[in-house]
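User: Can you help me understand a structure? I only have the sequence.
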Amino acid sequence: MIRGGKSVLRYIVKRLVMIIPVMLGVTLIIFSIMDLTPGDPAMMILGEGATPEDCAALRVEMGLNDPFVVRYCRYIGNALKGDFGKSYRTRIPVFQEILNRLPYTLCLAFISIFIAVSLGLPIGVLSAVKQYTIIDNAAVGTALLMTSMPSFWLGMMLILTFSIRFKIFPPLGVDSWKCFILPAISTSATSMAALLRMTRSAMLEVIRQDYIRTARAKGASECRVIFRHALRNALLPVVTVVGMYFGVGLGGAIVIEQVFAIPGLGQLMVNAIRDKDVPMLVAAVLFAAIIASLINLVVDIMYAYIDPRLKSKYVVVKIRRRSAS
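Assistant: Let's start by predicting it. Here is the structure, written out as tokens:
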């Protein structure tokens, strides 16, 4: 048991170290794209009425005339010290601005995943158990319909229906918890459809296995067979989809936050792109990438607890390597 714990800890540390080159690659790509796009940050900061002399002086002060490699290395060095710079537009420290906006995006992502799991998982199980029935056909048809609908279009239809016509939910802002309901439904539609179809496929594959027939032959109740034996063994691909769509939710919130006027990380990215606010955009994408990487790590760790065979297999491999050495 101790060896297994050490193996899991070693795996977690290894995955955390692997995040470092990923983050460097993300910052390099965003930094390069923003450097190639047209526009002068100094002009955007000072306004269109600024003189060329003022813009040139500000560029020298901000180090914008330095070569690309120098500016990128300087940014990484400051970021390692916890200094992500100041916004070109607001002159507010980037880290402070992101901390103010990040809770809204995380709240939207968590609510979206909760809705997707709460609806997609049970409906997918029911669809697999009732295969080729009207319930199955309705579930699959609904999943295909939700997959084909763009999230921004669904969001606007929800605003027209539940905000303007029936006045149940507020259309914009984050004044109360009700403001997150419609954005979360819009964001979760695609992930719920994917989760439903994945659960159905995994359950159909599992319920045909020999051990399921053996459990039924021993007199186990259908509820126990489905939820204790079949669902647990079908959860691995489902958990993968959940982790993947959580990261997609962080990125997909860019569009939804614009539709519902939510002051989250997505809206911050859009404003940074429009204003060519390089420090703000790089830091925002970096934070989103870190969160997505940590979620993927949590998903990988959950594999061992959902299916103990994976954990035991990893431990056996470690023991064999030590014996061979």
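Now, to help you interpret it: The chain has 13 helices and no strands. The radius of gyration is 25 Å. Let me know which part you'd like to focus on.
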